[in-house]
Amino acid sequence: MKKILAILLVIAIVFALSACGNLKKIKSAISDIADGQVLDGDGMIKEDSGGKPRSKSKGYTISNEVLYDDDDLTITVTEVGESDYGDVLVKLLVENKSDDNMILYSEETIYNGYMIKSYWYAEVAAGKKSNTEMTFYEDDLLMAGVGSADEIVFKLVGYSDDYEEDYLDDYFVIYPTGLDAGSVIYPERAPVKGETVLVDNDALTVIIESADPDGLWGYTLQIYVENKTGVDMYISTDDESVNGFMTDIYWGETVLSGAKSVSKMTIYDDDLEANGIDKIEEIELYLEAYNLDDWNDVIFEDTIIYNP
């Protein structure tokens, strides 16, 4: 009887929230009930019902870890958790002890060995504190095939809002699940059915994992890059053409030393329509990889032809 009532409760929630598009939690709740778990009066799984509590933080143990501290600025990781949508959130407390208003942001982030974009920006007035969140979106994590955040390396930049003073420009590493540098194991990449290897040498691997003719903005390629060198790398394309017609693609990725990346390369529908291309038969591009600190150091350059 309890199970029937619980299912009816969930169905009611579905109708109440479907207009907002918030169905992810509902599907999870239905799945949990199907396994024999019981909901309490708030619609949450009881901890004593034999099921796992629906917690936003899945095994993240980091708490109030000071990343940076000097006379002007303190940054503390208060906790790491997950949103209802599967995004990983690094919660940062920023304390501006200077006489300047500060602007801070993150860049060049490595999540379990993969370059994953981190979204963090903060403006903190002089003498004030601010609770902020650095976000890693679930879609990016799924695309790279990484799970819980065992290791996150990121660069933080901070300066005065009049651009007169630089307060921070450095890399930091955290281990949210309680591991350390010696115990973290990066996920192994599984070969993808139908993938096409463009480059594979001692320095660099580039693979087209998939092609989607119906991507959001156009024909979309999913590109895997692995930097096997000891230097940070920038890889991009030039002189792109589709079926012999010049086409602008605008793709470039920074991949730090020893890191991997999975990203999207899009050929826009407008460009295909302008050239009367209904079906892509050949993509030609000039692939270039450079040492990020010395653009005269060319790691790779060659013309690549891809036939879908």
Architecture overview:
This protein has four helices and 18 strands. By secondary structure, the chain is mainly β. The chain has three domains: 48 residues, no CATH class; 112 residues, Immunoglobulin-like (Sandwich), CATH 2.60.40.1230; 111 residues, Immunoglobulin-like, CATH 2.60.40. Strands 4, 5, 6, 8, 9, 10, 11, 12 and 16 form a nine-stranded mixed β-sheet that branches. Strands 13, 14, 15, 17 and 18 form a five-stranded antiparallel β-sheet that branches. The protein is elongated and about 60 Å long. The N terminus is likely disordered.
Write the layout of secondary structure elements.
Layout lengths: L1 H16 L6 H11 L28 E7 L3 E10 L5 E9 L5 E10 L2 E2 L5 E4 L4 E8 L1 H7 L7 E9 L5 E9 L21 E5 L3 E9 L5 E10 L5 E10 L2 E2 L5 E4 L4 E9 H6 L8 E9 L2 E13 L2
Parallel strand pairs: 5-16
Antiparallel strand pairs: 1-2, 2-3, 3-7, 4-5, 4-6, 4-8, 8-9, 10-11, 11-12, 12-16, 13-14, 13-15, 13-17, 17-18
